[in-house]
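Following the same procedure, sequence and fold were stored together, as reproduced here.

>
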Amino acid sequence: MMESPKTAMSQSAPLIEAIRQRPGMYFGSKSLTAFHHFLCGYRLACDVHQIKDDRLGLEIPSDFNEWVAYRARFQESTSGWCKMIVATSKSDEEAFDRFFELLKEHSMRRPRLVAEIEDPVSVPLMEEDAKNFPGPPLTRVQIVTYTHDPGFFALYGSEEWGDRFYPFLSWMCELSSGDWVIHDEEAYRELLRANEEWEREMNGSRHVGGLES
């Protein structure tokens, strides 16, 4: 007896794996940009038809932008994972392969706990955000690294906050206070060193700018 298409699809590999193996069949060429456009269209269709489950296995991790910024050594993730990968690849074809490498790394990563902030206090970044604060109460924030790349992740343990990548400690300005518990002295000292170096560069830029003006 032949399997129904629905049964056959449920037993096959996720669509994202099929795309990885044969991108030309879906897009005509091996292109991360084309794949990204395909994903945007897929997400739009899911929203329009109120499809909540990831039945085709195409959902990208919610913090993947942060992960790519960390691994590609960007200071922030606002340009999105596709543009960051393309910008650091020699071609769109190479970027396609790099995307899947980073996606696999993300699924296999293991955190290195550097420090914890107990009973942190959140503060609004801008005056217009003040009405949303205090946000959901935080009991603990974990500071972790995954590789030897610069920066770190703050794991807030809250869907509202999400896990975020920061290039320097000073950039974690949403928290005004809290008790720091250091678990990895060597890694923490490296974060402090990088932060001090960045602050010196910023102060030097302000000084030069003041002289020029």
